Amino acid sequence: MTDLFLGLDVGTQGTKALLVDERAIVGRAASAYELLPDLPPGAAEQHPETWWSAVRACVRELGQSVDLARVRGIGVSGQQHGFVALDAARLVLRPAKLWCDTSTAAEARELTQMLGRAVPTGFTASKILWLKRHEPQHFARLAHVLLPHDWLNFRLSGELAMECGDASGTGLFDPAARAFDARACYAIDESLAAKLPRLVAPEEPMGRLTKAAASELGLPAGIPIAPGGGDNMCAAIGSGATRPGVATLSLGTSATVFAYARTPVLDPAGAIAPFCDSTGGYLPLLCVMNATGVLHEVARAFPGEDLESLTRAARDVAPGCDGLLFLPYLAGERVPDLPQASGTLLGIRPGSLTPARMFRAALEGVSLNLAWGVERLRALGLAIDSVRLVGGGAKNELWASMLADCLGARVQRLAESESAALGAALQAAWIVRRGSLDELAHRFVGFDGVPFEPDGARVAVYRDALARFRKSVERVHGA
Hints:
The protein is an alpha+beta fold. Helices cover 37% and strands 22% of the residues. A seven-stranded mixed beta sheet has the order 18-19-17-16-22-23-24, with helices on both faces. A five-stranded mixed beta sheet has the order 3-2-1-5-15, with helices on both faces. Strands 4-7 form a two-stranded antiparallel ribbon. α11 packs across α12 and α12 (355-379) packs across α16 (456-477).
Protein backbone atom coordinates (compact mmCIF):
# COMPACT_ATOMS: atom_id res chain seq x y z
CA MET A 1 0.00 0.00 0.00
CA THR A 2 1.44 3.37 -1.00
CA ASP A 3 1.83 6.30 1.37
CA LEU A 4 -0.68 9.15 1.23
CA PHE A 5 -0.34 12.88 1.83
CA LEU A 6 -3.18 15.16 2.89
CA GLY A 7 -3.63 18.69 1.56
CA LEU A 8 -6.11 21.10 3.14
CA ASP A 9 -7.16 24.44 1.66
CA VAL A 10 -8.99 26.55 4.23
CA GLY A 11 -10.69 29.32 2.27
CA THR A 12 -13.26 32.04 2.75
CA GLN A 13 -16.24 30.01 1.52
CA GLY A 14 -15.19 26.55 2.59
CA THR A 15 -12.45 24.01 3.12
CA LYS A 16 -11.25 21.56 0.47
CA ALA A 17 -9.23 18.42 1.13
CA LEU A 18 -7.23 16.20 -1.23
CA LEU A 19 -5.35 12.96 -0.64
CA VAL A 20 -2.53 12.11 -3.02
CA ASP A 21 -0.23 9.15 -3.46
CA GLU A 22 2.95 9.14 -5.55
CA ARG A 23 1.23 9.98 -8.83
CA ALA A 24 -2.47 10.73 -8.47
CA ILE A 25 -5.25 12.19 -6.36
CA VAL A 26 -6.99 9.35 -4.55
CA GLY A 27 -9.59 11.20 -2.46
CA ARG A 28 -11.29 14.55 -2.09
CA ALA A 29 -13.79 16.21 0.24
CA ALA A 30 -15.25 19.64 0.91
CA SER A 31 -17.12 21.50 3.63
CA ALA A 32 -18.80 24.89 3.10
CA TYR A 33 -19.37 27.78 5.51
CA GLU A 34 -20.10 31.51 5.42
CA LEU A 35 -18.94 34.81 6.86
CA LEU A 36 -20.31 35.88 10.21
CA PRO A 37 -23.61 37.73 9.68
CA ASP A 38 -24.73 41.21 10.78
CA LEU A 39 -21.30 42.84 10.85
CA PRO A 40 -20.72 46.56 10.27
CA PRO A 41 -20.19 47.78 6.68
CA GLY A 42 -16.83 46.64 5.29
CA ALA A 43 -16.22 44.02 7.98
CA ALA A 44 -15.62 40.39 6.99
CA GLU A 45 -14.97 37.89 9.78
CA GLN A 46 -15.04 34.19 10.62
CA HIS A 47 -14.33 32.32 13.81
CA PRO A 48 -11.31 30.02 13.50
CA GLU A 49 -13.25 27.18 15.11
CA THR A 50 -15.40 27.19 11.98
CA TRP A 51 -12.31 26.22 9.98
CA TRP A 52 -11.40 23.44 12.40
CA SER A 53 -14.92 22.01 12.24
CA ALA A 54 -14.67 22.00 8.44
CA VAL A 55 -11.28 20.25 8.56
CA ARG A 56 -12.75 17.56 10.83
CA ALA A 57 -15.70 17.08 8.48
CA CYS A 58 -13.45 16.78 5.42
CA VAL A 59 -11.04 14.30 6.97
CA ARG A 60 -13.87 12.16 8.30
CA GLU A 61 -15.44 12.12 4.84
CA LEU A 62 -12.14 10.99 3.33
CA GLY A 63 -11.89 8.27 5.93
CA GLN A 64 -15.09 6.69 4.66
CA SER A 65 -13.35 5.59 1.46
CA VAL A 66 -9.60 5.67 2.18
CA ASP A 67 -7.49 4.10 4.92
CA LEU A 68 -6.23 7.17 6.78
CA ALA A 69 -3.58 5.10 8.55
CA ARG A 70 -1.60 5.42 5.30
CA VAL A 71 -1.30 9.21 5.64
CA ARG A 72 2.35 10.20 6.13
CA GLY A 73 2.16 14.01 6.11
CA ILE A 74 -0.18 17.01 6.11
CA GLY A 75 0.05 20.39 4.39
CA VAL A 76 -2.29 23.34 4.96
CA SER A 77 -3.11 26.14 2.55
CA GLY A 78 -5.08 29.09 3.89
CA GLN A 79 -6.70 32.35 2.89
CA GLN A 80 -4.04 35.03 3.13
CA HIS A 81 -3.84 38.20 5.25
CA GLY A 82 -6.33 37.18 7.94
CA PHE A 83 -5.61 38.06 11.57
CA VAL A 84 -6.04 35.41 14.26
CA ALA A 85 -5.46 36.94 17.71
CA LEU A 86 -4.53 34.65 20.60
CA ASP A 87 -4.15 35.41 24.30
CA ALA A 88 -1.41 34.12 26.60
CA ALA A 89 -3.28 30.82 27.00
CA ARG A 90 -3.29 30.50 23.18
CA LEU A 91 -7.06 30.91 23.04
CA VAL A 92 -8.74 32.91 20.27
CA LEU A 93 -9.57 36.43 21.48
CA ARG A 94 -12.15 37.34 18.83
CA PRO A 95 -13.28 36.25 15.34
CA ALA A 96 -10.59 36.58 12.67
CA LYS A 97 -10.69 39.60 10.39
CA LEU A 98 -10.27 38.31 6.82
CA TRP A 99 -8.44 39.40 3.67
CA CYS A 100 -11.62 40.96 2.24
CA ASP A 101 -12.31 43.09 5.33
CA THR A 102 -12.13 46.75 4.24
CA SER A 103 -13.02 48.29 7.61
CA THR A 104 -9.29 48.89 8.21
CA ALA A 105 -8.79 51.22 5.23
CA ALA A 106 -7.90 54.20 7.43
CA GLU A 107 -5.26 52.19 9.30
CA ALA A 108 -3.81 50.93 6.00
CA ARG A 109 -3.48 54.49 4.71
CA GLU A 110 -1.80 55.56 7.93
CA LEU A 111 0.72 52.70 7.80
CA THR A 112 1.44 53.40 4.13
CA GLN A 113 2.31 57.00 5.01
CA MET A 114 4.40 56.07 8.05
CA LEU A 115 6.39 53.33 6.32
CA GLY A 116 6.75 54.93 2.90
CA ARG A 117 5.58 51.77 1.12
CA ALA A 118 2.23 50.36 0.16
CA VAL A 119 0.32 48.52 2.90
CA PRO A 120 -2.92 47.44 1.21
CA THR A 121 -6.14 47.50 3.20
CA GLY A 122 -6.40 43.72 3.10
CA PHE A 123 -3.00 43.07 4.70
CA THR A 124 -2.73 41.88 8.29
CA ALA A 125 -0.84 44.89 9.63
CA SER A 126 -3.81 47.22 9.24
CA LYS A 127 -6.01 44.75 11.14
CA ILE A 128 -3.63 44.69 14.11
CA LEU A 129 -3.57 48.49 14.26
CA TRP A 130 -7.38 48.47 13.96
CA LEU A 131 -7.60 46.13 16.98
CA LYS A 132 -5.39 48.47 19.00
CA ARG A 133 -7.53 51.48 18.08
CA HIS A 134 -11.03 50.00 18.17
CA GLU A 135 -10.82 47.12 20.66
CA PRO A 136 -8.12 48.10 23.18
CA GLN A 137 -9.44 45.55 25.67
CA HIS A 138 -8.58 42.76 23.21
CA PHE A 139 -5.26 44.31 22.19
CA ALA A 140 -4.22 44.46 25.84
CA ARG A 141 -4.61 40.66 26.00
CA LEU A 142 -2.98 39.97 22.61
CA ALA A 143 -0.06 37.57 23.06
CA HIS A 144 0.28 35.82 19.68
CA VAL A 145 -0.39 36.91 16.09
CA LEU A 146 -1.17 34.17 13.57
CA LEU A 147 -2.51 33.91 10.03
CA PRO A 148 -5.37 31.51 9.23
CA HIS A 149 -3.21 28.64 8.00
CA ASP A 150 -0.80 29.17 10.92
CA TRP A 151 -3.69 28.72 13.34
CA LEU A 152 -4.67 25.45 11.64
CA ASN A 153 -1.05 24.31 11.90
CA PHE A 154 -1.20 25.21 15.60
CA ARG A 155 -4.36 23.12 16.07
CA LEU A 156 -2.64 20.21 14.34
CA SER A 157 0.78 20.42 16.00
CA GLY A 158 0.51 22.62 19.10
CA GLU A 159 3.34 24.74 17.64
CA LEU A 160 3.27 28.48 16.90
CA ALA A 161 5.13 29.13 13.66
CA MET A 162 4.93 31.05 10.39
CA GLU A 163 6.62 30.62 7.00
CA CYS A 164 7.90 33.32 4.67
CA GLY A 165 5.23 33.00 1.96
CA ASP A 166 2.16 33.85 4.00
CA ALA A 167 4.22 36.13 6.27
CA SER A 168 5.12 38.28 3.27
CA GLY A 169 1.44 39.19 2.95
CA THR A 170 1.19 40.69 6.41
CA GLY A 171 2.77 44.09 5.76
CA LEU A 172 5.15 43.25 8.64
CA PHE A 173 7.74 41.36 6.61
CA ASP A 174 10.81 42.15 4.51
CA PRO A 175 10.72 39.64 1.63
CA ALA A 176 14.23 40.43 0.44
CA ALA A 177 15.69 39.72 3.89
CA ARG A 178 13.12 36.95 4.53
CA ALA A 179 12.62 38.36 8.03
CA PHE A 180 10.11 40.42 9.97
CA ASP A 181 10.42 44.19 9.56
CA ALA A 182 11.14 45.59 13.03
CA ARG A 183 10.29 49.14 11.93
CA ALA A 184 6.86 48.10 10.66
CA CYS A 185 6.13 46.24 13.88
CA TYR A 186 7.20 49.21 15.99
CA ALA A 187 4.99 51.54 13.94
CA ILE A 188 1.99 49.61 15.26
CA ASP A 189 3.20 48.92 18.80
CA GLU A 190 6.53 48.51 20.52
CA SER A 191 5.45 45.11 21.86
CA LEU A 192 4.28 43.63 18.55
CA ALA A 193 7.55 42.02 17.38
CA ALA A 194 7.57 39.77 20.46
CA LYS A 195 4.08 38.51 19.59
CA LEU A 196 5.07 37.17 16.16
CA PRO A 197 5.90 33.44 15.88
CA ARG A 198 9.15 31.86 14.78
CA LEU A 199 9.81 31.44 11.07
CA VAL A 200 10.31 28.02 9.49
CA ALA A 201 11.86 27.09 6.14
CA PRO A 202 9.59 25.60 3.43
CA GLU A 203 11.44 22.27 3.32
CA GLU A 204 11.25 21.49 7.04
CA PRO A 205 8.29 20.26 9.12
CA MET A 206 6.86 22.94 11.39
CA GLY A 207 5.74 20.28 13.86
CA ARG A 208 4.07 16.90 14.18
CA LEU A 209 0.46 15.86 14.62
CA THR A 210 -0.43 15.77 18.30
CA LYS A 211 -2.20 12.82 19.88
CA ALA A 212 -5.23 15.01 20.61
CA ALA A 213 -5.56 16.23 17.01
CA ALA A 214 -4.88 12.74 15.67
CA SER A 215 -7.69 11.37 17.81
CA GLU A 216 -10.13 14.04 16.55
CA LEU A 217 -9.23 13.47 12.91
CA GLY A 218 -8.60 9.74 12.83
CA LEU A 219 -5.03 10.19 11.54
CA PRO A 220 -1.74 8.68 12.77
CA ALA A 221 -0.18 10.69 15.60
CA GLY A 222 3.31 12.05 15.05
CA ILE A 223 3.19 12.49 11.29
CA PRO A 224 4.92 15.68 10.07
CA ILE A 225 3.03 18.90 9.41
CA ALA A 226 4.47 20.82 6.46
CA PRO A 227 4.84 24.60 6.82
CA GLY A 228 2.10 25.02 4.21
CA GLY A 229 1.44 28.55 2.99
CA GLY A 230 -1.06 31.07 1.78
CA ASP A 231 -3.55 29.85 -0.79
CA ASN A 232 -1.69 31.58 -3.64
CA MET A 233 1.65 30.09 -2.60
CA CYS A 234 0.19 26.58 -2.46
CA ALA A 235 -1.74 27.11 -5.71
CA ALA A 236 1.57 27.99 -7.36
CA ILE A 237 2.87 24.53 -6.44
CA GLY A 238 -0.35 22.80 -7.47
CA SER A 239 -0.42 24.57 -10.85
CA GLY A 240 3.28 24.19 -11.64
CA ALA A 241 4.20 27.88 -11.28
CA THR A 242 7.45 26.63 -9.80
CA ARG A 243 9.71 27.60 -12.70
CA PRO A 244 10.32 30.83 -14.67
CA GLY A 245 7.95 31.74 -17.50
CA VAL A 246 4.84 30.11 -16.06
CA ALA A 247 2.11 32.27 -14.51
CA THR A 248 -1.08 31.19 -12.79
CA LEU A 249 -4.30 33.18 -13.05
CA SER A 250 -6.95 32.32 -10.48
CA LEU A 251 -10.42 33.55 -11.39
CA GLY A 252 -12.76 33.66 -8.44
CA THR A 253 -14.72 36.42 -6.74
CA SER A 254 -11.39 38.20 -6.78
CA ALA A 255 -8.53 37.27 -9.13
CA THR A 256 -4.81 36.80 -8.72
CA VAL A 257 -1.96 36.46 -11.18
CA PHE A 258 1.38 35.18 -9.89
CA ALA A 259 4.60 33.76 -11.27
CA TYR A 260 7.77 32.18 -9.92
CA ALA A 261 10.92 34.28 -9.54
CA ARG A 262 14.36 33.26 -8.27
CA THR A 263 15.05 36.69 -6.73
CA PRO A 264 12.82 39.24 -4.97
CA VAL A 265 10.62 41.38 -7.23
CA LEU A 266 10.01 44.73 -5.53
CA ASP A 267 7.54 47.16 -7.09
CA PRO A 268 8.18 50.78 -6.05
CA ALA A 269 4.59 51.62 -6.98
CA GLY A 270 3.23 48.89 -4.69
CA ALA A 271 0.90 47.41 -7.33
CA ILE A 272 2.62 44.01 -7.33
CA ALA A 273 2.88 42.26 -3.97
CA PRO A 274 6.49 41.16 -3.27
CA PHE A 275 5.64 37.76 -1.84
CA CYS A 276 7.93 34.89 -1.05
CA ASP A 277 6.67 31.52 -2.27
CA SER A 278 6.43 28.12 -0.55
CA THR A 279 9.44 26.56 -2.30
CA GLY A 280 12.19 28.94 -1.17
CA GLY A 281 11.80 31.33 -4.12
CA TYR A 282 9.58 34.34 -4.70
CA LEU A 283 6.04 34.88 -5.96
CA PRO A 284 5.33 38.40 -7.24
CA LEU A 285 1.56 38.66 -7.28
CA LEU A 286 -1.18 40.85 -8.71
CA CYS A 287 -4.52 40.84 -6.90
CA VAL A 288 -7.71 42.50 -8.17
CA MET A 289 -10.92 42.53 -6.17
CA ASN A 290 -13.37 42.28 -9.07
CA ALA A 291 -13.66 39.14 -11.20
CA THR A 292 -16.49 36.58 -11.33
CA GLY A 293 -18.63 38.72 -9.03
CA VAL A 294 -18.96 41.27 -11.84
CA LEU A 295 -20.38 38.60 -14.15
CA HIS A 296 -22.90 37.46 -11.56
CA GLU A 297 -23.99 41.04 -11.01
CA VAL A 298 -24.71 41.46 -14.74
CA ALA A 299 -26.59 38.15 -14.77
CA ARG A 300 -28.79 39.33 -11.89
CA ALA A 301 -29.75 42.37 -13.95
CA PHE A 302 -31.37 40.14 -16.59
CA PRO A 303 -33.91 37.73 -15.05
CA GLY A 304 -34.15 34.50 -16.98
CA GLU A 305 -30.51 34.64 -18.09
CA ASP A 306 -27.62 32.73 -16.57
CA LEU A 307 -23.87 32.78 -17.16
CA GLU A 308 -24.04 30.11 -19.86
CA SER A 309 -26.76 31.80 -21.91
CA LEU A 310 -25.10 35.18 -21.55
CA THR A 311 -21.77 33.72 -22.65
CA ARG A 312 -23.36 32.23 -25.77
CA ALA A 313 -24.92 35.59 -26.61
CA ALA A 314 -21.69 37.49 -25.96
CA ARG A 315 -19.82 35.38 -28.53
CA ASP A 316 -21.70 37.23 -31.28
CA VAL A 317 -20.54 40.66 -30.08
CA ALA A 318 -17.34 41.88 -31.73
CA PRO A 319 -14.18 42.36 -29.63
CA GLY A 320 -14.19 45.86 -28.25
CA CYS A 321 -17.92 45.59 -27.57
CA ASP A 322 -18.87 48.33 -30.06
CA GLY A 323 -17.23 50.94 -27.81
CA LEU A 324 -18.99 49.96 -24.58
CA LEU A 325 -16.39 50.05 -21.80
CA PHE A 326 -16.96 48.71 -18.29
CA LEU A 327 -14.70 49.85 -15.45
CA PRO A 328 -15.57 46.89 -13.22
CA TYR A 329 -14.79 48.25 -9.76
CA LEU A 330 -18.03 47.16 -8.11
CA ALA A 331 -16.27 46.23 -4.86
CA GLY A 332 -13.66 48.97 -4.90
CA GLU A 333 -10.28 47.84 -6.18
CA ARG A 334 -6.83 46.91 -4.93
CA VAL A 335 -4.94 47.35 -8.24
CA PRO A 336 -5.29 50.12 -9.12
CA ASP A 337 -5.57 51.26 -5.50
CA LEU A 338 -9.18 52.46 -5.43
CA PRO A 339 -10.78 50.92 -2.30
CA GLN A 340 -13.78 53.28 -2.44
CA ALA A 341 -14.38 53.10 -6.22
CA SER A 342 -17.59 51.93 -7.89
CA GLY A 343 -18.26 50.53 -11.35
CA THR A 344 -18.68 52.76 -14.40
CA LEU A 345 -20.11 52.18 -17.89
CA LEU A 346 -18.74 54.37 -20.67
CA GLY A 347 -19.59 54.65 -24.35
CA ILE A 348 -23.29 53.87 -23.98
CA ARG A 349 -25.24 54.26 -27.21
CA PRO A 350 -28.68 53.10 -28.35
CA GLY A 351 -28.66 49.30 -28.19
CA SER A 352 -25.66 49.09 -25.85
CA LEU A 353 -27.54 47.77 -22.83
CA THR A 354 -28.52 44.40 -24.26
CA PRO A 355 -27.64 41.30 -22.22
CA ALA A 356 -25.03 40.20 -24.77
CA ARG A 357 -23.19 43.54 -24.90
CA MET A 358 -23.37 44.11 -21.17
CA PHE A 359 -21.98 40.66 -20.44
CA ARG A 360 -19.19 40.98 -23.01
CA ALA A 361 -18.33 44.40 -21.61
CA ALA A 362 -18.08 42.86 -18.13
CA LEU A 363 -15.77 40.10 -19.38
CA GLU A 364 -13.63 42.61 -21.23
CA GLY A 365 -13.51 45.06 -18.32
CA VAL A 366 -12.21 42.44 -15.89
CA SER A 367 -9.78 41.11 -18.51
CA LEU A 368 -8.39 44.56 -19.34
CA ASN A 369 -7.89 45.35 -15.68
CA LEU A 370 -5.94 42.09 -15.33
CA ALA A 371 -3.94 42.89 -18.46
CA TRP A 372 -2.98 46.24 -16.94
CA GLY A 373 -1.55 44.42 -13.93
CA VAL A 374 0.24 41.81 -16.06
CA GLU A 375 1.88 44.67 -17.97
CA ARG A 376 3.29 45.77 -14.62
CA LEU A 377 4.58 42.27 -13.86
CA ARG A 378 6.39 42.21 -17.20
CA ALA A 379 7.77 45.71 -16.66
CA LEU A 380 9.35 44.43 -13.43
CA GLY A 381 11.25 41.80 -15.41
CA LEU A 382 9.02 38.72 -15.33
CA ALA A 383 8.77 36.69 -18.51
CA ILE A 384 5.22 35.39 -18.81
CA ASP A 385 5.07 32.95 -21.71
CA SER A 386 2.14 30.82 -20.63
CA VAL A 387 -0.74 31.31 -18.23
CA ARG A 388 -2.43 28.50 -16.32
CA LEU A 389 -6.04 29.22 -15.53
CA VAL A 390 -7.75 28.00 -12.36
CA GLY A 391 -10.82 28.94 -10.33
CA GLY A 392 -14.51 29.07 -11.13
CA GLY A 393 -14.07 31.48 -14.04
CA ALA A 394 -11.73 29.06 -15.82
CA LYS A 395 -14.74 27.07 -17.03
CA ASN A 396 -15.77 29.87 -19.40
CA GLU A 397 -14.11 29.19 -22.78
CA LEU A 398 -14.96 32.62 -24.19
CA TRP A 399 -13.26 34.24 -21.23
CA ALA A 400 -10.19 31.98 -21.54
CA SER A 401 -9.84 32.91 -25.22
CA MET A 402 -10.32 36.62 -24.43
CA LEU A 403 -7.62 36.45 -21.74
CA ALA A 404 -5.16 34.93 -24.22
CA ASP A 405 -5.76 37.95 -26.49
CA CYS A 406 -5.67 40.54 -23.70
CA LEU A 407 -2.55 39.10 -22.06
CA GLY A 408 -0.78 38.16 -25.29
CA ALA A 409 0.08 34.70 -23.96
CA ARG A 410 -1.00 31.09 -24.31
CA VAL A 411 -3.71 30.24 -21.79
CA GLN A 412 -4.29 26.69 -20.58
CA ARG A 413 -6.96 25.45 -18.21
CA LEU A 414 -5.80 23.04 -15.55
CA ALA A 415 -7.51 19.69 -15.18
CA GLU A 416 -7.38 19.97 -11.38
CA SER A 417 -9.21 23.01 -10.11
CA GLU A 418 -8.21 22.61 -6.44
CA SER A 419 -4.62 23.69 -7.03
CA ALA A 420 -4.13 25.12 -3.51
CA ALA A 421 -5.11 21.89 -1.73
CA LEU A 422 -3.00 19.94 -4.22
CA GLY A 423 -0.03 22.20 -3.64
CA ALA A 424 -0.33 21.76 0.12
CA ALA A 425 -0.37 17.97 -0.27
CA LEU A 426 2.64 18.07 -2.60
CA GLN A 427 4.61 20.21 -0.17
CA ALA A 428 3.90 17.62 2.54
CA ALA A 429 5.14 14.87 0.22
CA TRP A 430 8.24 16.93 -0.58
CA ILE A 431 9.33 17.42 3.03
CA VAL A 432 9.03 13.66 3.59
CA ARG A 433 10.45 12.39 0.29
CA ARG A 434 12.77 15.31 -0.67
CA GLY A 435 13.87 15.50 -4.31
CA SER A 436 12.72 18.30 -6.66
CA LEU A 437 9.43 19.97 -5.77
CA ASP A 438 9.22 21.40 -9.30
CA GLU A 439 9.47 17.92 -10.81
CA LEU A 440 6.92 16.58 -8.33
CA ALA A 441 4.49 19.39 -9.15
CA HIS A 442 4.76 18.84 -12.88
CA ARG A 443 4.11 15.14 -12.41
CA PHE A 444 0.63 16.16 -11.23
CA VAL A 445 -0.10 19.06 -13.58
CA GLY A 446 -2.58 18.15 -16.31
CA PHE A 447 -4.51 20.32 -18.74
CA ASP A 448 -8.18 20.49 -19.66
CA GLY A 449 -8.67 20.73 -23.42
CA VAL A 450 -6.53 22.48 -25.99
CA PRO A 451 -4.61 25.69 -25.20
CA PHE A 452 -6.01 29.09 -26.16
CA GLU A 453 -3.56 30.97 -28.36
CA PRO A 454 -3.60 34.76 -28.82
CA ASP A 455 -5.00 35.92 -32.16
CA GLY A 456 -3.03 38.77 -33.77
CA ALA A 457 -6.03 40.79 -34.88
CA ARG A 458 -7.82 40.52 -31.56
CA VAL A 459 -4.60 41.28 -29.66
CA ALA A 460 -4.41 44.58 -31.55
CA VAL A 461 -8.03 45.42 -30.71
CA TYR A 462 -7.46 44.78 -27.02
CA ARG A 463 -4.17 46.67 -26.99
CA ASP A 464 -6.08 49.77 -28.11
CA ALA A 465 -8.91 48.98 -25.68
CA LEU A 466 -6.42 48.76 -22.79
CA ALA A 467 -5.04 52.21 -23.61
CA ARG A 468 -8.58 53.60 -23.55
CA PHE A 469 -9.32 51.70 -20.33
CA ARG A 470 -6.31 53.20 -18.55
CA LYS A 471 -7.13 56.72 -19.67
CA SER A 472 -10.74 56.27 -18.58
CA VAL A 473 -9.73 55.08 -15.10
CA GLU A 474 -7.49 58.11 -14.75
CA ARG A 475 -10.25 60.45 -15.89
CA VAL A 476 -13.00 58.94 -13.72
CA HIS A 477 -11.01 58.03 -10.60
CA GLY A 478 -7.85 60.13 -10.84
CA ALA A 479 -5.71 56.97 -10.66
